[in-house]
Amino acid sequence: MQNKTSLLQEQLKARPWWMNILFVWCTLLALGVPIELVTRPVSEDVEVWFGIEFIGWSAKVGGLVHALIFAVGTWGFWKMRPWMWPWAALYVAQVALSHLVWSELSPHGRGWPIGLLQTAGISIIVVLLWRARALFQNNKER
């Protein structure tokens, strides 16, 4: 029987360091978004989809969908499921574009120059995920 440390090391070796960060990020959000949904008052809840802010009950529904996406992403990264390619890259591409739209449309946004910087930074993750097809395809047995 493996100890917990070797199990963790085995998990970390299953993917590159940057993908481990995405795996942990998805896990934290899969756990954190439901907590936020329950604890944040409806009147204060805000979710962003495709760069458009939703508030109130529509934000709660969007939050449920976000929680589901992050839970599925956690599972997909943990098991390195083949279906994660291209879906992870496409989802992150949508997030990148959303930052550009949100920065311009939202009263909380900081304008398109900041949105463009955010989009460029997030697009690096998109490229990494897009180029990682072999990592997902080679782990069908996990």
Short description:
The protein has 142 residues and is mainly alpha-helical.
Gap between N and C termini: 18 Å
**Quantity of strands, as a count:** 2
H and E string:
HHEEHHHH
User: Which ranges are low-confidence, i.e. pLDDT below 50, for 5 or more consecutive residues?
Assistant: none
Average of pLDDT: 92
Q: From the alpha-carbon coordinates, what is the Rg to the nearest angstrom?
A: 17 Å
Question: What count of helical segments does DSSP give?
Answer: 6
Helix percentage range = over 70%
Domain unit count? 1
Outline the structure in words:
- With 142 residues, the chain is mainly α.
- The chain has one domain (4-137).
- Helix content is 72%, strand content 6%.
- It has helices at 4-13, 17-39, 57-79, 84-105, 112-130, 133-137; strands spanning 46-49, 52-55.
- The protein starts with a helix and ends in a 5-residue tail after the last helix.
Any key phrases for this structure?
142 residues; mainly alpha; two-stranded antiparallel sheet; single chain; 6% strand
List the helices and strands and how they pair.
Blueprint: H1 4-13, H2 17-39, E1 46-49, E2 52-55, H3 57-79, H4 84-105, H5 112-130, H6 133-137
Antiparallel strand pairs: 1-2
